[in-house]
Amino acid sequence: MTTHPLANEAAYDCWAASYPPLPHNPLMRAEQQLVVELWPEVRGLRALDLASGTGRYGLLLQERGASDVVACDLSGGMLERSPLASRVRANMMHLPFAVGSFDIVVAGLAVGHAPRLRDWLDEVARVLAPGGCLVYSDFHPDAAAAGMTRSFVDDQQRKHVLEHRRYQLSDHLAAAPLAGLEIEVWREARVGRELREPFTGSVDFYRRRHDLAVVLAVRMRKLGG
Q: In this structure, what CATH number is given to the domain that contains residue 52?
């Protein structure tokens, strides 16, 4: 199998045709469980599913009673497959929303695509209302350091590896207060613990990667509420 280089936007457009609005592999299922456990009560909240893909978190927000759920993603291919009514194509570093537009922002496995963590947090904080909540996940830097990648195989059996920056937990801890955000809690998904679902080749994977952190999830609160 050959690796075919594409920029992230083009890669996600390519991936969209086989990317359902639900967690479709064991890592994503472990990641989603971790993220949803960090959510506050969302009923009645104005919600942004940031870097939404095909809308899995937006759908969950709607199911739990959030109001005015907006999906935002740079990939037009992903947004076309999203079942959410409100969809906005935009760069997550430059959001086309007014100050304080949302009470909660959820971003799944996307912050590693941000060129600068501090600037990303600044922009999310801008569109959050005072006291609003940000919950996001990232591919864990320890997993990246161990050689794991964000990748997929297309219908022509070409492997695409996504560009991903390795932000350490210390980077998140340092950037949050500078953006006017307070970290309330963070969690990790580890191989053999939160990630333990069997799959093809999982016996060897769990043996080699035992206790490796593969997902980082964080909940922050905007100060001033």
A: 3.40.50.150
